[in-house]
UniProtKB/TrEMBL annotation:
Coiled-coil blocks: none
Listed PANTHER family: DNA TOPOISOMERASE 3-ALPHA, PROKARYOTIC DNA TOPOISOMERASE
Listed transmembrane segments: none
Listed name of the protein: DNA topoisomerase
Entry GO CC: cytoplasmic replication fork
Record-level Gene Ontology MF annotations: DNA binding; DNA topoisomerase type I (single strand cut, ATP-independent) activity; metal ion binding
SMART domains in the cross-refs: TOP1Ac, TOP1Bc, TOPRIM
Reaction(s) catalysed (UniProt annotation): ATP-independent breakage of single-stranded DNA, followed by passage and rejoining
EC number(s) on file: 5.6.2.1
Organism name: Halobacillus halophilus (strain ATCC 35676 / DSM 2266 / JCM 20832 / KCTC 3685 / LMG 17431 / NBRC 102448 / NCIMB 2269)
Gene3D superfamilies, alphabetized: 3.40.50.140, Topoisomerase I, domain 2, Topoisomerase I, domain 3, Topoisomerase I, domain 4
Family: Belongs to the type IA topoisomerase family.
Amino acid sequence: MTNVVILAEKPSQAKAYAAAFTTQEKSKTSIRLKPDATFPNGATITWGVGHLVELKEPHDYKPEWKKWKLDQLPIVPDRFYEKVSKGKWEQFQAVKKLFQQADVIVNAADVDREGSNIFYSILRLTGVKGKPIQRLWINSLEKDEVRKGFQNLQSNDKDLRMFDEAKARQISDWMVGINASRLFTLLLQKKGFNQHLSIGRVQSPTVYLIYQRHKEIENFVSEPFYQIEGLFQAEKGSYKGLAKIKEKDKAKVQALMDQHGLKENEDLQGTIQNVDKKTKYQKSPKLHSLSTLQSVANRRWKYTPSHTLKTMQKLYEKGLVSYPRTDCNYITNSEFNYLVNKLDAYQKAMNISFTPASLKPNKRYVNNSKVQEHYAIIPTKTVPTEKKLSGLSRDEHNIYHEVLATTLAMFHGDYVYEETTIMTHVNDLPFKSTGRREVKQGWKELFPKPSKAKQEKDPILPEVQQGEEVGARLHIKESMTQPPKPYTEGQLINMMKTCGKLVDDEEDVEILKEVEGLGTEATRSSIIETIKTQNYIEVKKNNVAITDKGIMLCEAIEGTLLSSPAMTAKWESYLKKIGNGDGSKQMFIKQTSQFIEKLIQETPESIQQVNVRSTGEKKQWNTAVAKCPACTNGEIIDRYKFYACSNYKNGCKVSFPKRLAGKSLSANMIKTLCEKKKTRVLKGFKGKKPFSTALTLDEEYKIKFDFAKKT
């Protein structure tokens, strides 16, 4: 009798897997499936809770590594170990027990590098060895796809190489983050800096790219330029045109006017020399990857990339869309076939109706050779009922509608427009006017209408004839050159993807193109959230601005690989070799260690050039919050990431978290708990749903929820 144990990455994923089969029983830590054709003896699904295990922290290896000191760098353990993440011990023990009892273990975490890392890190920490392991490889949580995936489980050979690749990346990121953050912070503190810097292989060059745009805007000098604009009155309407001149020197523009015997603001006569009309056909946009969807959602609804990903994840877990963290814009013939079969149902869900222009696959959207781990984001075979659609939140509805419209657009006709160019001569000086007229909406009828500003860019020109005489009034138009605009959050995603354009080395450029720049499709939004949290950037009205703290970070890392996307290119080049079985994790970690040694030697001199700024943040940690409720001598101190008793060296172990159930615990809340053993009812805690509760301190000085308290 084969005991199959399946590990999902998170509870919602486990629930989606279970929904494809018949459940026998549920517990707090697992779901038991009834025997069926796929699992003749049944199966047990258990799960991680995000990252169930994590790399140990420096002080877990050596207590003296807890304090930030220059003479302790570099911090590089002989071997790297994992530990159970805080608050996840119970789930880990349940997974460990199930793994020990299993005959076959199935890795059903997300099908990417990090999914492999999550599974094997948990497996390694359980100590379970020598059991057959298989891999679930699917792109959709729809029931049919889940069943099909479990009936066609794959070997774990590729998965193990992906794990080595991911673990090499994770350990090296840990080494760079721990050592570089301490090195730069401590050297700047010698110059009077009273904060700390967080430095990372991906987040730091991302901040630096924003800093470069800031410098471009700051150093930009706006200059006037001059053109000759004509306003023309034809029999069937008026239109504007420009002469082919654009000069900084107004005198040159005036000289051209004089040459043709023209004066400003006089009633003149013009002749239409040429009317050129071209019919143009615009194909529908490519299918969405996560980043293109994040860009559209930010432009249209000002959603942050992080919010778009969270919304997509909810839709994925509801079985309505395919895997969200994809970097692919193509589907295979298999997906195309089911989309064709569901076309009428999708149209009904969108409350629209059109006759498909073609039901044959087009290589712009359908290309088997372009699909690797994941295909583009498309709706699943599950078409939501009117009731299910009305149950979606406004944001879920918007995102689902966008995915559905983009998918249906590939079946719709082209957008057809007529582009008109009119050449009007006034005293032999030619003026060019361009405009467009919509002939057929085609796929554009599926999307919101463009803004008025966009429509004004392409004005509709009146109907005119070659040789027609028109009234004309001319003037010299003065305009100012405009600085580059700040990035929006949506543009940050594209900037991170295309940062290869800013790298000089051709080989690095090619690698960055291949890996699509900084971060991955799955991590870019969280990197943006991290640099916001670190106060390196701030977002106002959707525009991204760098802070004084961000400027100081960039000045500190300028000239090092930490400021350049090239570091990611070099890493990804070797990580790919590990994934292919041509490189080793050990060699990669050794090279990272050598990079850190070089950084430690060179940074003290380069950091002298940095101008230490006030970051606008007050130094809040290492300050007393309250008297320790447990011992008589200590005080509860703000330790940056947590609160703890100052008397810990003498054995007082009292400590409190900075965050509890998604809510930040302020110094005042901790003070109230220490002094009164309870707080008032507080809002903003997060569980399955947001909730409010009072907090109390129990006899062991642990914080507990008190739902009984009403005020």
